[in-house]
Amino acid sequence: MIGLMLERFCMALRVLVGVLTIVLALPVAAQVIARYTGIIPVYLWTEELATFIFVWVVMIGSMIAVWDGTHFHVAVLPEAKSPLLSLLQKGFVLVLLIFFGLMFAWYGIEYTKFGSIQNSVMMGANMALTHVSVPLAGLVWAVFSGYRLSEAIREYRDARSA
Question: pLDDT tens digit string along 119-136?
Fold first, then answer.
């Protein structure tokens, strides 16, 4: 049940990152056209907008990568053969991910508060719009990793009882 909800949430994140990537192409295209053709005037706010969208694309992409198990994972040791060693390998990475995710969430709150007292130069947008992506990503990393850890524990128990 929880896994299905998280999978659907991740699918929504995939759609969102796709939409944001398409939207990102618009201000970037406007910048390129303005700078190299002179057809339209150079709008500096497009650069800020592109930066804001890019930050969100990166942070949402990291959330998706944590769900897929492709982020923060380097295969240094060969895949463990025994269920216990497999659990320890996966569990070590997932516990670290939970820890760092919670750190990002906790300290990201102060980072967002700091951003909330600033506005961007060209657009006048509140910087909390991008800063809030840090604690949000950390929270999602921790939730996704916690679920993956519970799956790894369940796999271990199933393998032991079989």
Answer: 998 888 999 999 999 999
